[in-house]
Structure formats: C-alpha cells, structure tokens
Design goal:
With about 475 residues, the chain is of the alpha+beta class. The protein contains twelve helices and 15 strands. The chain has helices at about 5-15, 20-55, 80-90, 130-135, 240-245, 250-265, 285-295, 305-345, 350-355, 360-395, 430-455, 460-465; strands spanning about 60-65, 70, 75-80, 95-100, 110, 120, 125-130, 140-145, 155-165, 170, 205-215, 220-230, 245-250, 275-280, 300-305. The strands form two sheets. Strands 1, 4, 5, 6, 7, 8, 9, 10, 11, 12, 13, 14 and 15 form a 13-stranded mixed beta sheet that branches. Strand 2 and strand 3 (about 75-80) form a beta hairpin. It is elongated. It starts with a helix and ends with a helix.
Length: about 475
C-alpha cells in the first residue's frame, strides 16, 4: 500500500466519524492552548523583568565594594587597589574594569563666572579610568574622551567630562541661602513660561576647581582650571553623574587626594578603592565573572543579575505549576485519542480482516492508525496555536478597551498592563512550532497502543466479526 493511499484512507476514516473526531480534537486544542499561553506569559514576564532591571542599571555590570577589612586566602590583608583591578581585567569575559571614586575626603568648591560668583559642591567630582568608559557603554554627546596621561602635580589644568545638565549644579553665591534666586533647576521657568538656562554654560564658561584647608591665616588652597573635553550622553541607568556630574581621570583624582593630604598633613591613606565597576561582555557570563571575582577574595559584590536570576526563578516556578496543569489537559487529550482509536478498531475489525486477507502488510495497518492519531494531534495543535495567538492579542490590547490586568499573583510577581502598559503575552515562532510538534507527538504516542492492538487481530476472526 502506498503512503498516499494510507493518508487518503486515514482521512476518510476520520471524516466518517466527524462528531467523535471533533470531541477528541477539543481536548488537544485546550491542552495546546493552555501550554502555549502559560509559556508565553513567562516569556513576557522575563522580558518585562529584564527591561525593568535594565532601566535601573546595567545588567552586565558588577560592582565590587572595598569597604571594611578583607583577608586573602593566605591570611594577609586584601586591598581593592590597582593591582587587584589588573587581576580582575584578566578574568575571561571581562570587557573593562574601573575604580569609581568620589571626592568625599576633599574640602573645596568648583566655581565659575566673574570672581567665582557661581559655586558648586566639590562632591560632584567623580574619578574614573578614562580608558574604560567607552568599553563600558558610555557615549559622548560631543567632544572627545580624556587622554590617559595623568596631569602632573604642577599642572594648572585638568581634563574633565561633564553631563549636559552640570550647569544646573551651580548656585549664585551672591544670593542668600533662603532666596529662591540662588538656585536654578532644570525645567524651571520664568513668569512667562520660558525655561530658565543654568547659571553656568558648560560650552562657554570657565570652571575652576579649588581644594582648601584651614581658615584665616592658616588657610591653604590650590586651584586648577577644568578643561571640558567632552559632554556625556545622559544615561540614568548607568549613573546620575552622566547627567550632571564632573568626571576626572582616576589618576587626577588620586593626585588631588595626595595634595590635599599633604596640605592637611594626613599620613593615613586608603589602600582600597571604595568601589570598582566591572563590565562583562555578555549577560550570560555575569554569574561566572562574579564567581571568579569571589575566588580572588572580593566577596562583597553586587549585580543586577542577582535580582534577575531571583525573578527568573519565581517565573520558572510559576510556569512549572501552571504548565503542569496544562500538561494534565494534554494527558487527558491523549487518553481520549486512545479511547477514540480503540473504538475505531472495534468498529473496523471486519475491515482490518479484509485488509490482511488481501495481503496488506502489518506495518501498513499500523501506519494507518498512527497517521489518524497523529493527524488528530496535529490539527488540534494547529487550532490550539491559533486560539493562543488570538488570546495573546486580546491580552496585549486590554488597555485599549480601558481595562488592566494584574497577573502578579499568577506569574510570581510584577504588574502587567495591557497595550501601552506592557506586553502580557509573547508567542515567538519557535514556541508555535514546538507546540505543534509536541501536540503531534502526543497524538502519535497515544496511537501506538491501539495500532499494535489492530495488527494483532486474527484475520479469520475479523472476517467473521459482525
């Protein structure tokens, strides 16, 4: 018997029992639809979680903290210094690493305008390795990156990067602290609704950094002109300072600290950086890099990937629970297919006997029944996928009907809103194909038992069967 004849015969047998076939299909459709929707909700939740975490910070970035006393495996003190950073850069998949230093230990101010009229807090200074900025994903609105050559202690200028809103950090020192005219805020408007510019224009005005100590006759000070070489592209997820900070080369920040310590006759100097940022080349490698950093002895780390993995576990647990419920539906559908095919054998016993007497091979008979059960699975899967797509579309567009949907309890956390509020369900092509293949396999496996029973029927008994 040709395969085309088997397919044709199987199709006629299914159409001959339309009612029974339709009822069997319903179980496969429901099971497939539930499985696809449950997985699609998990995919959407994972995507939503990653987008949310990405807005909070870089998912491929690991922060190392140098606070407190750290001990190495040899029992000696461990410092988060330049040597440690060099070792961290050697870890596979590390794209860049840089210390992050703020001027908390310095006293002074940043001034601009005639006679230093406009002042800004010195704590807005950030020290970073300039060679790490571009590999870590930072971008410039205009200008260029600072050179990697540190300024000497006798230098009068320091290269810096600024944020586009840095000018709003300055206040008018000629106004009292209680006067609203002392300050300018981004977005502030005058009586006519016109936006007020900052006191300091970063493109035109000269800025001067001054560190000082003591008062009156004992006061000591040192000043540098800040040479703005570039303006950073604002990115709140990477740090507020990309919007309004002043970025120094880390070598220059260390030089300022040394000069300040000499001015104050401070001998104690921190041997560890407070923070080091590590950029990983890919999200999938963050855990391995963080583990390698721990192996070096620096266990005080943090990455957004930690929260991401915890969220993924919650989503996975929810998917397993509801996916299990959906799998039960497919199991019931498989039982229905077995029942349908078994009933078909009893109804077609005489037909099977005639086929054997005419010389039809047992493999052809088995194939015919397996084709029928697989077709039920395939068609049920196809309809189930189609209904899933419709249901997904409805869920994702609930907000256009003025409705919202809270699935936080269903998927282990998070808040879903239809339409513009977020995507509730995502059904990628691979999921549709996998669901269709799985439903077909369910039908195929369910048909094995009835098919084997059919080929074992005696030809003579089958012919005598009424």
């Amino acid at each position: 018997m040709k395969i085309s004849d088997e397919i044709s015969l199987s199709a006629r047998n299914l159409l001959r029992r339309k009612g029974r076939t339709a009822l069997t299909l319903v179980g496969v459709v429901i099971g497939t639809c539930m499985v696809v929707l449950m997985i699609s909700l998990g995919i959407a939740q994972t995507k939503t979680n990653e987008e949310m975490l990405q807005s909070w910070g870089d998912l491929t970035q690991v922060q190392i903290y140098g606070y407190g006393t750290m001990m190495g495996s040899d029992g000696k003190p461990l410092y988060l210094d330049d040597a440690a950073i060099a070792n961290i850069k050697q870890i596979p998949h590390v794209a860049a690493a840089t210390p992050y230093a703020q001027a908390y230990n310095l006293e002074g101010e940043i001034t601009a305008g005639r006679n230093g009229r406009y002042t800004s807090d010195i704590y807005n200074l950030i020290g970073i390795d300039p060679t790490a900025l571009e590999p870590m994903g930072f971008a410039l609105q205009n200008g260029s990156w600072p050179t990697n050559t540190p300024a000497s202690e006798k230098a009068t200028k320091l290269q810096v990067l600024v944020g586009s809103s840095t000018g709003y950090n300055f206040q008018d020192s000629r106004k009292s602290y209680n006067s609203p005219k002392r300050y300018r805020y981004e977005g502030q408007t005058d009586a006519n609704g016109k936006e007020l510019p900052p006191f300091v224009d970063i493109d035109k005005d000269k800025m001067t950094l001054t560190i000082k100590t003591g008062e009156g006759s004992t006061e000591k000070s040192r000043s540098w002109e800040l040479e703005i070489v570039g303006v950073l592209e604002p990115d709140g997820a990477k740090g507020y300072w990309t919007q309004s900070g002043i970025v120094l080369r880390i070598q220059d920040m260390k030089m300022l600290q040394k000069i300040y310590n000499d001015m104050t006759k401070t001998k104690e100097e921190s041997k560890s950086y407070d923070q080091v940022y590590v950029k990983v080349d890919d999200l999938s490698n963050v855990t391995d890099v963080e583990t390698a950093i721990h192996d070096l002895g620096f266990t005080n780390t943090y990455s957004m990937n930690q929260q991401r993995e915890e969220m993924q576990k919650q989503v996975m647990n929810s998917q397993m629970i509801f996916g299990g419920i959906a799998a039960v539906s497919l199991l019931v559908a498989a039982i229905n297919i077995i029942n349908t095919m078994t009933m078909a054998i009893y109804e077609r016993t005489r037909e099977i006997g005639v086929m054997k007497v005419l010389g039809c091979e047992l493999g052809n008979i088995r194939t015919m029944f397996l084709l029928e059960s697989s077709t039920i699975g395939f068609i049920g899967g196809l309809i189930g996928v189609g209904i899933s797509l419709i249901a997904s579309f409805v869920l994702n567009n609930l907000s256009t009907l003025g409705q919202g949907l809270d699935l936080s309890g269903l998927m282990g956390g998070g808040y879903y809103m239809g339409g513009g509020g977020g995507t509730i369900s995502i059904i990628p092509p691979w999921l549709m194909l996998a669901a269709l293949v799985f439903a077909t396999l369910v039908g195929l496996v369910a048909g094995i038992l009835p098919a084997n029973k059919a080929v074992k029927i005696s030809a003579l008994e089958a012919i005598r069967h009424e």
